[in-house]
Write a structure and sequence with these properties.
452 residues; mainly alpha; Hypothetical protein af1432; two-stranded antiparallel ribbon; 24 helices; globular
Length: 452
């Protein structure tokens, strides 16, 4: 397998001028560092869709990340299988595919930066950080990998260059993305609301970006590419509405994102069916009788029978079959605008599978993610995050734990100080955040002896 040592380099080794180690050792340790990190363990108490108190059965960010890793490795295996021609020769892209260690490490790490209460908490933190570099889940993931993770003193989990590149979904800095959104810039001039309950959360969706503080990591990750590739890869496209964003992903990122989408569109569907939030009638109307499935009949009525059989085994067989159909539909595309294989090669799904997967994602979004019962819990979580941030900002010396306050005091600018508060809240689990909120704001709750 072709694997330049530059891709196995760690940022710490880059700074100290040390040689890189072989890929097999490095990528296995990348995965191990993610699995054994505190940020990964905390995902067990962070929301996927349903509240953690609904049932022990439903998925959390941790189980979701594990499923993404399993699907990701399956996608790589399928690309290897279809990457051998009739004469038994490997296609050129095969030598650039990530190892199983590497793709699993990337997939397991992809949600490390998600704050408590999922995307709702993400929006709340972005509002509080709107004048201080913003907040975005994938940007926070990169920050954990490069700064906050516990494996090194200053460089976080310190993963390899290729793993870092694979996790990075939006290689543009927050301020550069904002420069292309005049309406959002105008909103930034409005005063902070005095009542968070009337805040229009949809107006504060975070720009897809990385933080300015991690710019050196971005430059290091992109160092092996030529100037033309770097320029195109980091270019922010104009948008007709909403935030602009970068257009391209690295090879490993395209595999991870497909695995993430499959898990979202199919595994999260299983939770909705098990909880009886999605009934057979609406499934038949919006999925089975849809234009997409009529055009691309990837499965028939037997899938409906299994999915709604009131049997966990039946549901599992249906879900497994749907995932298998998606995995077997992967192929390798090539973008001629890039010269480096890690940017030129792009994993994609065949047209029919992609159309049906997008249909499933829309179905879950409409019938699960955006229903009032789910949005109400998200709204409550957002208010918790906002009130905690407001209080910590006003009283950092009294309310921040000692180690976080010491870090806060050591910062040179107000933006760096606010980032310390943001990091503290983003690292909380749903349970920790709700207990801290109750301790601070509920008269009958809380004790100096509480173990949050």
């Amino acid at each position: 397998m072709l694997e330049q040592m530059e891709w196995t380099q760690r940022y710490t080794d880059f700074l100290s001028g040390k040689d890189s180690r072989p890929a097999r050792i490095v990528y296995q340790r990348d995965r191990a560092r993610v699995i054994h990190s505190a940020s990964f363990r905390r995902l067990q108490a962070k929301t996927q869709i349903f509240g953690l108190n609904e049932s022990d059965f439903f998925r959390t960010r941790l189980t979701h990340s594990m499923e993404v890793a399993q699907i990701g490795s399956g996608l790589v295996e399928q690309l290897i299988t279809v990457g051998i021609d009739d004469a038994g020769r490997e296609k050129e892209y095969v030598q650039w595919l990530p190892s199983m260690y590497l793709i699993e490490g990337i997939c397991l790490a992809h949600d490390l930066g998600h704050p408590p209460y999922g995307h709702g908490g993400e929006v709340a933190l972005n509002y509080m950080m709107r004048h201080y570099g913003g907040f975005e889940g994938n940007a926070q993931t990169l920050r954990i990998l490069s700064k906050l993770g516990e494996y090194t003193r200053e460089n976080g989990l310190d993963l390899s260059r290729r793993a870092t590149l694979g996790v990075m979904k939006y290689p543009a800095v927050y301020e550069d993305v904002l420069s292309k959104h005049a309406d959002y810039q105008n909103k930034l001039q409005s005063p902070e609301t005095s009542d968070f309950r009337v805040l229009d959360f949809n107006s504060w969706l975070p720009p897809k970006s990385i933080y300015k503080e991690e710019m050196p990591i971005l430059e290091w990750a992109l160092q092996p590419f030529n100037e033309s590739d770097r320029s195109l890869f980091t270019r922010v496209a104009e948008s007709d509405g909403g935030h602009s964003r970068t257009q391209y992903k690295a090879l490993d990122t395209t595999i991870m994102e497909l695995a993430d989408d499959i898990a979202y569109g199919i595994h999260d569907l299983e939770d909705a069916v098990a909880m009886k939030m999605v009934g057979r009638e609406i499934w038949q109307k919006e999925v089975m009788d849809s234009d997409e499935l009529m055009r691309y009949p990837l499965w028939g009525d037997e899938m409906t029978e299994r999915l709604f059989s009131n049997s966990s085994k039946g549901r599992k067989h249906a879900v497994s079959q749907m995932v298998g159909i998606m995995v077997e539909a992967i192929y390798m595309d090539e973008n001629p605008n890039f010269s480096h294989p890690l940017l030129a090669y792009q994993a994609r799904l065949e047209e029919g599978a992609m159309a049906v997967l997008e249909l499933l994602k829309r179905f879950v979004f409409k019938n699960v993610i955006t229903i009032a019962e789910v949005k109400q819990m998200e709204y409550k979580g957002q208010l918790i995050v906002l009130e905690l941030f407001k209080s910590l900002r006003a009283n950092p010396g009294a309310l921040l734990p000692a180690k976080h306050f010491a870090k806060y005091q050591a910062q040179k600018t107000e933006q760096e100080q606010q980032r310390v508060i943001s990091d503290y809240i983003a690292g909380m689990t749903n349970t920790y955040a709700s207990r801290l909120y109750a301790k601070l704001f509920t008269a009958t709750q809380g004790s100096i002896f509480d173990m949050l």
